[in-house]
Specification:
319 residues, alpha/beta, Rossmann fold, 17% strand, globular, binds S-adenosylmethionine, S-adenosyl-L-methionine
Length: 319
């Protein structure tokens, strides 16, 4: 019972993430015509949260785009772990990402409870539904499959069962594969997240990983962050195992990845974003709480890793 309610709380973090994304979209930080369909009651978030959502989206999309741009002999696949109500697939299919013809399959995994809700929204909204070819419902109504989009219901802690579903839908371990984990692995015990990362290096010939999650739990801001989450019964099980950027990098290297890099949101803001983008954001909303922004941004990291022949030099940094 306790585990179930804990999982329920973790599933709830998806609604939070979606509301935050919509808030940033509605204020003009970035475009996503699909996220609105997954939010019942929009809430305007603070400027700090909105800027954070923008940078998170910017950095991850930047890395995803590099993967899509790689010249590979085989068609590619993407698998998003704990995808929640992620809309990337729909943005790609609607043409926002340009030519995605090198992408053959897009898999999303989340708890069945989340997957069912997502599938229902997709079926109800023509704008989403019409982007998917040959939709079929599988696994007793839980999963949604199609020509290239696969929504899988399962528990990441039972990885071998997820693997069976992936294989069932034609997951190809020799295809260049991008794995996306956006605020997900942090909710798992390290033994479970490591099992997944280890499986990838063992089973896939050409793979890349893109991760976003909280870091630095022990400084004073980090302690407040953890306490606030705990008061909502949210536990970041992985954060003490990978508290610093170096830990985020070595977690991959130790498990056999060829290269890994981690940066915090401050670095992305200060070194990777265009100055024009920063002034554009300043015109969207005034951000007075600069100090708080720096503190918050120091507690989120983007990490990426690769194990492959094709990606080696190309996938080395956010550009
Ligand atoms: N990746 C999405 C995003 O960034 O908007 C959702 C992030 S949300 C904070 C975390 C997601 O991970 C939730 O949808 C939750 O259900 C999923 N998740 C966490 N633990 C999981 C597990 N053991 N098995 C499957 N999904 C899990």
């Amino acid at each position: 019972h306790d585990n179930t309610s804990q999982d329920e709380v973790i599933r709830g973090t998806n609604d939070d993430a979606t509301v935050s994304r919509l808030s940033a979209v509605n204020l003009g930080y970035f475009k996503d015509p699909f996220v609105q369909f997954f939010v019942k009651r929009p809430i305007r978030r603070s400027p700090i949260i909105n800027r954070g959502s923008y940078i998170r989206n910017y950095a991850l999309d930047n890395l995803v785009r590099q993967f899509l741009n790689l010249d590979t002999p085989k068609k590619k696949q993407i698998i998003s772990l704990g995808a929640g109500f992620d809309t990337r697939y729909f943005l790609m299919k609607s043409g926002q990402w340009g030519d995605c013809s090198q992408l053959s399959k897009y898999f999303e995994v989340d708890f069945p409870e989340v997957v069912v809700k997502k599938a229902m929204t997709i079926k109800r909204r023509a704008q989403l539904y019409e982007l998917i070819q040959n939709v079929r419902i599988e696994k007793g109504g839980i999963e949604l499959a199609s020509d290239d989009y696969f929504l899988l219901g399962g528990d990441l802690r039972e990885w071998s069962e997820i693997v069976q579903r992936l294989v069932h839908y034609g997951f190809d371990s020799t295809a260049p594969t991008l794995v996306i984990s956006e605020c997900v692995l942090i909710y798992l015990e390290p033994e479970h997240s490591n099992m997944i990362l280890n499986w990838m290096t063992q089973e896939l010939t050409d793979c890349m990983f893109v991760l976003y999650e909280q870091i630095r739990p022990t400084d004073s801001f980090g302690k407040v962050m953890i306490r606030n989450l705990q008061s909502r019964r949210i536990e970041l099980k992985g954060i003490h195992a990978y508290p610093e950027l170096e830990d985020q990098e070595t977690r991959f290297i130790r498990l056999g990845w060829d290269g890994a890099k981690a940066v915090d949101t401050n670095t992305i803001h200060d070194q990777y974003l265009d100055r024009s983008d920063i002034s554009r954001m300043a015109r969207l909303e005034i951000l007075d709480e600069l100090e708080e922004w720096h503190l918050l941004a120091g507690h989120y990291c983007v990490a990426w890793a690769y194990k492959s022949i094709t990606a080696k030099d190309k996938f080395a940094s956010i550009q």
